[in-house]
Each structure stands twice: as C-alpha cells, then as structure tokens.
Amino acid sequence: MTIVGPILLASVMILPIWLAMREHEPDQKIVVVDDTNLFRDSISQSKNIRFVYTEDSFDSAYKNLGKTDYTGLLYIPKNILSGGRAIELFYKEQPGITAEEYIKSNIQKMIYNYMLQKDSVDLNTIRNAEQKSTIQLTTKKVDKNGMAEDTNTGTLTFVGFGFGLLVYMFIFLYGAQVMRGIIEEKTSRIVEVIISSVRPFQLMMGKIIGIALVGLTQFLLWLVLTFSISTIAQNALLGDMKVDMKKKEVIREDVFGKKTDLAALKMDKQLRDTSKLDEVFDRFSTIDFVSIILCFLFYFLAGYLMYGALFAAIGSAVDAETDTQQFMLPITIPLVLSFVMAQYIVQEPNGSIAFWFSIIPLTSPVVMMVRLPFGVPPWELALSMSMLVLGFIGTTWLAARIYRTGILMYGKKVSYKELWKWLFYKG
Amino acid sequence: MELFSAKNIVKRYASHTALDDVTISISKQSVFGLLGPNGAGKTSLIRIMNQITGPDSGELFFEGQKLNPEHISQIGYLPEERGLYKKMEVGEQALYLAQLKGMSRAEAMQKLKVWFEKFEITAWWKKKVEELSKGMQQKVQFIVTVLHEPKLLILDEPFSGFDPINANIIKNEILRLKANGSTILLSTHNMGSVEELCDDIALLNKSKKILDGSVKEIRKTFRTNTYEIEFSGNMMGFTNAMWAGAQLLDQEQDGELNKVRIKLLGNNTTNDLLQAVMRVSQVHGLREIVPTMNDIFISKVGEGNATVSQTSLTE
C-alpha cells in the first residue's frame, strides 16, 4: 500500500487531465446534405471525422445511408438561418460528445460569421474585441508591510483541504491501528507474557510510538513517490503537448481568417488547458510547502499521539473489536467535526470559528492544517501547538491508567462508569 | 535456604478480597506447588510475585532482598492464559521475548538453537506462529520462559494443552532444571504432577492459605492407617480373623485372589494384623494406601467450604 498508494494518487491526479486532452473517439465519415449551400467545403475535417458533401437531396441520401459506408448523415435544413429547424445528425454509431460539440460549434460559428457579414460587420473587428476581452483575475495577498504576494485562492483552498484531509485520514488510520494491535495482544494473550517483563506504560507507549514511526515512514515514502511520479508524468505528458503546440502554430494564424479552422480552435482550447495547468503548477510553487509540510509533521504526530492514546485506552478496555463501537463514537466526533468544519474554515480562514477550532486540541490538527496555506499569525500557531502538546500529555496520562487495568481484565462488560473507576485504581 | 518469600500479602479488588494474609516460603532448588481451587487467589499471588500488580500490604523477598524491578530478569513466568503474536515468525519472536528479559541477541540466538533442537522444532524457526499447532506453540512458550535461565521459574498450569508425550517432556525438563540449580513454582490442578514433582506445597482456598509444608510430611499427616492386602483364601475367614483390630473398608474378589482395604484401629500395627490373618490365609501383598494429594485437596477444600456453609446455615 505504501508503494501503490502514491501511484494511485498520482494517476488520479494526472490521468483525468491526460484523458481529457486526448481524442479517442471512433472514426467518423459523415455525409453532409446542405440545403443552405453555405457550408459547402467549409466544415473542416478533424482528426477522425471526415465530412463528405453530396448534391443528393436529403430524402435520397437518407434512404441510401444504410447501403453506404458513411457513419452518419448531417442535414442542414434551409431555414436554419431564419431560426428554423435544428440541424440533424443521423448516425449509425454514436459519435461521441466531442464530435457533436465539434459539429455544433463549427456550424454555430459559421452562422455567426455569416450573420455578421450579412450586416456588414467586419469579422476582424469582432475577433479583435474577443481577444482583448479575455482576462485573468490575479489575487494578491498584502501583508503587514504592504508587500504583495502573488497567490491564488483556489489553489490555497485546495492545498488547505488536501492537508486537512491527510491529517484526518492519517490520525484515523493509525489511531485505529493502535487500537486493533492492543486488542490483538489482549485476545492472543501475548500481553500476559510480555507484561511480566515490561511495565504496562512502556508497552502502551511502545505501541503508540512504533505505529507513529510506521505512519511517518509511509508519509515520507508517499511524499517522495508522489512527487517523483507527478514530475515525471508532468514532463512526459505535457512535454508531448508542448511539441504538438509548435507544429500547429502555423495553422493557428487561420483562426482569425475567413475559414474557421476548428482544428485550430480546438487546439486553442488545448493550449488554454495546458497553460492553465502550467499556471496551476506555478501557483503551487509559490506556496511555502516546506513550512506547511513541517507543520503537517507536527500536527500529524501530535494529533496522532493524542488520539492514539485514546484509542489505546479503548483497545485495552474491550475484549473484541465489536465492543469498541460505543467508545469509538465520542472519540471520533471531534475529529469528524473538524473535517466537516473545513469547508467553512476555507471561506473564513481567519474568523473566530476558525481561530477557536484551531486552538482546541481535539480539532486543531485538522483545522489548523486547513488554515495554514492562508497564513496564520505565529502566536496563534504557537498557542495551538502548545495546547496540542498539553492535550496529548493529558490523554496519555488518562490512557495509561485505563490501559494498565484494562489489559488484564477480561469478560467484564465495560461501561463509562467502570472506566472512571479504573482511573483511581492503585498501581 | 530460602530463595523467595511472600509475607502477609493482602490484595483487595473493588468487589472482593483476593488474598487475605497469605505467607509462603520457597526453598532454593526445590519445586514448590501452589495449589487451590479456581478463584482461590493463586493468579493474584503470582501476578504480585511477577510485579505485574502490587499488594495492598505485605512484603516480598528475593534472595533476602526486597523484591524490585531488577529481579525481573531473574524470574521466568509462563502464564496460564498464554499466547504469542500470531503473525510474527517463531524465531524472531523468541529472540524478542528473550531480549525483553535482558539477554543479548547473540546469546539468545545461541541458546535458542540448542532448545529448539532439543524439542525437535528447529524446522519451525521461520514459520509464523499461526501456522503452528497449539502443542507446538506451547513448546515455544515454554522454551522462551526458561531460556534466560532464571533463578525462579513460575509455571502456571504448564501441562495444560499438552499430550502425554509432551507433558512428559516438560516434566523431565522441570526436574532437569531443578537439578541444574533452578527453583520452580508450579501452580496446577494436576495433582498427579504435584506428587511426582513437588517438594513443598501451599494450598490456597478463598484467599487464605489453608495448608502448607512438604509433600511427604503432609501425606504422612493425612495418613489414615489404611492398607491394602492381597491374599488367597477364604474371605469370610479373613475378615473374621481381623475382627477388632481393623475395619474393613472394601473388598474385591478376582478368582483366586482377594483384595481388601482395611483401616487399622487403635494402636494395632500391621504386624499384629498379619499375625492374625496369616493363620487363615496366604498373604501375597501388603501396602499402605497413602492419601493422594487429590484426596487431601478435596478433603481440605471441601472441609473449608462445608464450614462456611455450616456457618451460613446457623446464622
């Protein structure tokens, strides 16, 4: 899972982008019956769609469709220009959305141009205006000293959410592992053997720390693997795209010409996609990943230590995993809550809700990670961290007292009242 | 010489008292039997001896010193409810448990090889524990307990789960360990093994110690002057001849051979009896029936329980 995980993660990120950029539809050969006589030779061939014009009337072309090797028939009725019937595409094999869009936007553009020209509007003026009206909104963060930072809210949200989710997942995953391990030691009775050699506290902490190290190792491995895979993939796939770009540069000129070259139009869209991706990767690089990752390490470890101790206490109190349900709920509620709150926190990262939830030890690991990309005042960070440290010291103390009684106790149906009593048993 | 002692141990749990002023003393290089019905307090006492829990009051001494954590490496413990990590390899786990007791890895490795060979389980070194049968797992557990050559070995029901052959192996190991200088505390319900192995015992019932001493002495104390005689001849004649000297408890006839169990009365000795019956029968064998530990156990514990129920009746 340690190796497969990053591969899965990287592919989940890269694959959809890659697939979206590819064309992978069946080859089409479409016969066009154009009653308006406007589009003769105008619809350009795309990579896998060929348009063939015919002088036949619609009825005869339609009747003959089955006998020919055309995959479809495109009928442009005469009254299309006056807002009449729709264009109809009759097909033998489903053409796919891209083909449909292609045809539709193609025809639309041509009608558009035709209409403009009919009213003597210069196409070039239009194109000019269109180009100039495409803008980008850049957001910049201004700090105390009035220095502007180039950021992108969308990216920050993504990063915040991402790390919040990671902390949430890791704490849950490894906390549960602690619990399961302790239950296994109880049911297999190995604990009876070990407990004569080590103190219960040592056994409990040993398990918690051991699993923490497993979690850290796995996280670091994920980090390295995901990074290298996406870098490789990025260069491999987008490197390809960049080469393609150069080739089609020439055709691009015609986009503004009379013949609307839709292959180029589409490629334009691709260009825009890649540059968007580039931009995204750029934005990522402006975020201070180093400090975020350092904070992640702290919050993961400290949050895990805190919750892990609680999970350890539960594990020691029950006899089987099925009995853990009643205790799991109150422990997991703050954790789940903090994750649910994340979507509100990203909208108001410095509001009072965000502040309090990032200070209280039970919710701070997730919430603080969500807040971090948006910037957190150092004193708040320090407060949150120290509270969390106190938190895990407290829960460890609590857990130790429950653990040392619980691991040797079998058969008793444990309730909260019972656990409370255990806190005060003598060693 | 005393190796270990526990004096006036009291242990109370929330709902009941587990140990009520229990004192035991274990001599060096002996096998000490800790006996008692379920719930008597044996496990509590053993846990206290292993420093898993502490007593509410009382003291424990190991080789004259107050019992402290340093002694852990000199005590070996095989719990009644015992287990191993299922998914771990046998050899690796044995090494780990040995190291927990303070052995170095190299030393543990070397000694384990010897033990594994002795028990003929060398082939199991790389296997996962869950692949072993129960008997095999128990063998591994036994080895791990004795590996660090502890001065005091505490075995709680060591024979449970073993077939007769393996139980015999364990028994011989216990005797061998004793001969090599170890002291062993054996907690068991298997009275046969008590008679075969134990030098001294302590019997607990309902959190109190109700009997202790050497096995030989105890059996002697519980002697009821019962004898078994094999003879050929007339049964009626025999019993008449015994008449006032002994009480007939049981008789059995097997063809020509008769067997009786009798109890000598008063100050009569076996010689007196023999003289009386020799006249009317051919005596083939005479032996004393010494009460078994089983009998003693049942009688002492039963007596204790009876007293309790008696008391509750009269209240």
Unreliable parts of chain A: 245-264
User: Main beta sheet of chain A: strand number and arrangement?
Assistant: 4 strands, mixed
Question: How many domains of chain A, as an integer?
Answer: 2
Counting helices, strands and paired strands, the structural category of chain A is alpha/beta
Mean pLDDT of chain B: 89
Q: Choose one word for the global shape of chain B.
A: globular
Question: Portion of residues in helices of chain A?
Answer: 55-70%
Protein chain pair with the most extensive contact, residues per chain: A-B, 18 and 23 residues
Number of strands of chain B: 14
Distance between the termini of chain A: 41 Å
The main pleated sheet of chain B reads as: 6 strands, mixed
The strand order across the widest sheet of chain A is 2-1-3-4
Q: What radius of gyration of chain B results from the CA coordinates?
A: 24 Å
Mean pLDDT of chain A: 77
Rg of chain A, Cα atoms, Å? 32 Å
Return residue spans of chain B where pLDDT drops below 50 for at least 5 consecutive residues. none
Helix count, DSSP H or I runs of 4 or more residues of chain A: 14
- What string gives the helices and strands of chain B in order? EEEHEEEHHHEHEHEEHEHEEHEH
Strand content of chain B: 25-35%
Number of helices of chain B: 10
Q: Approximately how much beta-strand content do the residues of chain A carry?
A: 5-15%
Description:
The complex is a heterodimer of chains A (about 425) and B (about 325). Chain A has helices spanning about 5-20, 60-65, 95-120, 125-130, 155-185, 190-195, 200-250, 260-285, 290-315, 325-345, 350-360, 365-370, 380-405, 415-420, and strands at about 30-35, 50-55, 70-75, 90, 140, 150. Chain A has about 425 residues and is an alpha/beta fold. In chain A, strands 2-1-3-4 form a four-stranded mixed beta sheet, covered by helices on one side. Residues about 245-265 of chain A have low confidence and may be disordered. By secondary structure, chain B is α/β, with parallel strands linked by helices. Chain B contains ten helices and 14 strands. Chain B has helices at about 40-50, 90-100, 105-120, 135-145, 165-180, 190-195, 215-220, 235-240, 270-280, 295-315, and strands at about 1-10, 15-25, 30-35, 55-60, 65, 75-80, 150-155, 185, 200-205, 210-215, 225-235, 245-255, 255-265, 280-290. In chain B, helix 2 crosses helix 3 (about 105-120) and helix 2 packs parallel to helix 4. The mean pLDDT of chain B is about 90. Chains A and B meet through helix 5 and helix 6 of A and loops of B.
